[in-house]
Specification:
The protein is an alpha/beta fold. It has two domains: 2-220 and 393-414, 3-Layer(aba) Sandwich (Rossmann fold); 223-390, Glycogen Phosphorylase B (Rossmann fold). Helices cover 44% and strands 15% of the residues. Helix 12 (323-331) packs across helix 14 (373-390). It is globular and about 65 Å long.
């Protein structure tokens, strides 16, 4: 079996998938954005300042999956530089962002075309298959899979539009935009759509997709995250430490968290919220001083942050299946999130589920867990056990290989 994985710029999930597939003896070619291995990090970070990407070197080097050799990876730098040039034009107000993203990602697909050959399956992140990439794979008689790791864009708008209106912000995820039309075109053109949670699958079914072409495989968690916590007493005496990991933005419930922290402060509940990741300019006045922004972090630093926190809070409006939330579950850290987070939580068994857009209930549930050590321990232990038994990367690898074999068998049966 030969697989081509095309990630595009950004996330690293397909790179991890490639490393796992290689472990199974499958031949893998991994197409990704620029990997500046031989460039001084200072130069890369300087370029990042020009295009508005803080700590750019860190962002790019996480694209190098452990387990893939240089010969397995093709770095598509031209399309990345082209996209950055377009982003500069956007910042100069010479180009609309929607056009920049659309042209940049279409050029990415065009750049990858010459590498799409001699394989059985072309597995592409949705958005990176246009510019002729999926079309080329089909001409080469490959099965095509669009990998989509967030709710369908029409459903996302339903969940988020009121949040944007609240702050007079332009909704930048509109399903009718050129970019999101490009992303969905991959899902429509591919033979299969692979999603990372039942929540995402349901949003696709709600928007007219056939169930037989939408497959769910949850991403895995590294086994060294399992069982990091063995004591559910509070880690520090000064305050209960909450943690949020990811892009602190409207979609992920930033406003809800800020309001919940304000409410807890008014109740006299001593908490600190540590935010790890990029932070949007939310234009929310009077952000409490006990919300501490730590910025971008290296992935291997994450375990210490989870181990030294008391509760993981993530009141998101729409996800796919939050990797960070699943890692928190694996560690034994009690997780409070929404059903739209996509993670496999049973309320009060393996986590706490709250409704979207409700800061008061979030504050109530934080306080409830603070006051109930036995519940914190029960949830932490059960969540860690669940992840270790059903959602490791080894299990993801088996599920992915089984899926590949199934669709290849179906193809051969039709011959």
């Amino acid at each position: 079996m030969k697989i081509i994985l095309s990630q595009g710029q950004g996330r690293i999930q397909l790179g991890q998938a490639g490393a796992l597939l290689k472990e199974s003896g499958i031949k893998v070619k991994y197409l990704t954005g620029w990997l500046p291995k031989k460039i001084n990090p200072i130069i890369v970070n300087f370029l990042g300042k020009i295009v508005g990407r803080a700590d750019l070197y860190k962002r790019l080097m996480v694209r190098q999956p452990v387990g893939l050799d240089d010969d397995d990876i093709i770095s598509c730098s031209k399309s990345e530089f082209y996209l950055w040039f377009l982003i500069i034009l956007v910042r100069l107000k010479l180009l609309k962002e929607d056009n920049a993203l659309t042209w940049g990602w279409r050029y990415l697909g065009k750049e990858t075309k010459k590498h799409i050959k001699d394989a059985d399956i072309f597995h592409v992140r949705s958005g990176a298959g246009q510019g002729g990439a999926i079309e080329k794979a089909k001409k080469e008689n490959m099965i095509t899979i669009a990998d989509h790791s967030i709710a369908h864009p029409i459903s996302m708008k339903e969940y988020l539009i009121e949040e944007y209106k609240r702050f007079n912000q332009k909704y930048d995820l509109d399903p009718n935009s050129k970019f999101w039309t490009l992303v969905e075109k991959d899902c429509l053109d591919a033979d299969y759509v692979l999603v990372n949670s039942d929540f995402v699958k349901n949003t696709f079914l709600d928007n007219g997709y056939r169930e037989d072409i939408v497959k769910v495989i949850y991403f895995g968690v590294r086994e060294d995250f399992v069982g990091l916590k063995t004591d559910w007493s509070f880690v520090k005496k000064d305050a209960v430490h909450l943690i949020f990991i990811g892009h602190f933005c409207f979609r992920k419930g930033a406003r809800i968290l800020i309001e919940a922290i304000k409410e807890l402060n008014e109740r006299g509940v001593s908490v600190v919220l540590d935010v790890l990741g990029i932070v949007d300019d939310l234009k929310i006045p009077d952000i409490p001083s006990n919300i501490v922004f730590h910025g971008i972090f290296l992935y291997d630093e994450l375990k210490d942050h989870l181990k030294n926190s008391d509760l993981y809070v993530f009141p998101t409006f729409a996800e796919g299946s939050s990797r960070a939330a699943m890692e928190a579950m694996a560690s034994g850290l009690p997780v409070i999130t929404t059903e739209n987070c996509g993670v496999p939580i049973v309320h009060d068994e393996t986590g706490v589920i709250i409704p979207i857009n409700n800061s008061m209930i979030l504050a109530d549930e934080i306080e409830r867990l603070i006051n109930d050590k036995m519940l914190r321990e029960k949830i932490g232990r059960s969540a860690s056990k669940l992840i270790s038994e059903k959602y490791t990367w080894g299990i993801y690898k088996k599920n992915l290989v089984d899926f590949y074999e199934l669709i290849l068998d179906k193809k051969n049966d039709k011959k």
